[in-house]
Amino acid sequence: VDFTLGWQQGEGKGSVQSSHNLPAPAGDTQCDAVESAPGIPVIPVANQNESTCPTISFASGSDLARTPELSWSIGTSYRRSFGAGELVLGSRLRHTDFFWIIPRQINPNPPFNVLNTPVGQSGYSLLDANISYEFQVSESSVRLGFVGRNLTDKQYKEQELPLGPGGFRGWGPPRYVGAEIEIEI
Predict the structure, then answer these.
(1) What is the pTM assigned to this prediction?
(2) Which of 9, 109, 121, 165 is 20 to 30 Å from 96 at the Cα level?
């Protein structure tokens, strides 16, 4: 039996950056999405550079992307002599707590509103298992087995890019069951 535990406490430092290279929820850059003053049109993309785009302030203590506070796993492995070789059984349960895929971007000045479309992933657990038979043939080691990943077929997001009313979402791998043959010469 083995056990892993990961704990991390991450937060952003306060900073001010040009909006020229920051992606906007509707695509292109934050510079596209911001008027320089009421009634003055947005700067055309061809004329944008760091000096013509407005700056964006990031508050100290802001959330970081893909930083779950807690993650853990527990696994078991059992090996037993069987005939001319060994039978190996194993399983693992992995858990990841809530994390932001796209963290909230909070306005550092009143009214302290959220400036973007935050995307989070709730905590999830994945169950994996394997069974194999290992034996020798002359000088070679042979392993025949079956493996299963995400056996509960849990759906979870690995990435997301909101683009106005549409966008893109990348899901984690679904249930997978397969056979393996390994020959070590």
Answers:
(1) 0.71
(2) 165
